[in-house]
Amino acid sequence: MAEPRFIVIDGRRWRATDPAIPEEDAARLRRWLMAARRDVGRAKKADDPTAERAARDRVHAAKTALGERGDPWWEQSADDRRARWTAGVDRAAEEGF
Predict the structure, then answer these.
(1) What pTM does this model have?
(2) Is the dihedral of CA 66, 68, 74, 80 positive or negative?
(3) Residue 3: what pLDDT?
(4) Going by DSSP bridges, is the β-strand pair 12-15/6-9 parallel, antiparallel, or unpaired?
(5) Within-domain flag for 80
(6) Mean predicted confidence (pLDDT) in 74-89
(7) What is the Cβ-side half-sphere exposure of residue 91, based on CA atoms within 13 angstroms?
């Protein structure tokens, strides 16, 4: 059976994380994503649009690396999928995650 491409939360459909990502890499990407989301909240509270934009860019990068944004993972080759999440893992590692 094929992996589900979408999940539904509170009646809203969201793209699922790429199931081919090794768990260790996916966990690192999720930590990076959650830290970026916290930074969005802090920036909004501080009324700092520059910091908010930077944090939102990191959220987007993490979600793209997880396969939740950008080209659908089910339409990518295995090599393209690996390159996508590896680039994200590398960037997360540069930021300390």
Answers:
(1) 0.91
(2) negative
(3) 78
(4) antiparallel
(5) yes
(6) 96
(7) 21
Q: Which residues form the domain of 43?
A: 6-94
Do 96 and 74 touch, CB atoms closer than 8 A?
Answer: no
Backbone phi, psi, residue 13, to 5°: -90, 130
Number of separate domains in the chain: 1
Percentage of the chain modeled with pLDDT above 90: 96
In a domain? residue 1: no
Q: How far apart are CA 7 and CA 14, in angstroms?
A: 5
When pLDDT is cut at 50, 70 and 90, the band that residue 96 belongs to is very high
pLDDT in tens, 15-70: 999 999 999 999 999 999 999 999 999 999 999 999 999 999 999 999 999 999 99
Structure tokens at 61: 């990068």
